[in-house]
Amino acid sequence: CEICINGQTITVTTNLTLIIPKYSQVSCDVTNFFPTKPIELHTLVLSETELQSVFSLLKPLIKSGAPITRHLPNY
């Protein structure tokens, strides 16, 4: 599947968690290249405090060496 966010394209081949802060101006298109494999999307709206809590829970995963891909936006 391919995700295009504000003109930046990310090809997704595994599970992905995409975090977009509340009140962000985002235009997003999702294209599924494999019609036999459904895409599951969930939308969460989190405040800054809630996001900080989530990131604190993610820190152990990042330190564990789990495969993580980071994409930085172009402004």
Automatic annotation (TrEMBL):
It comes from the Bacteria. This is Urease regulator. The gene is ureR.
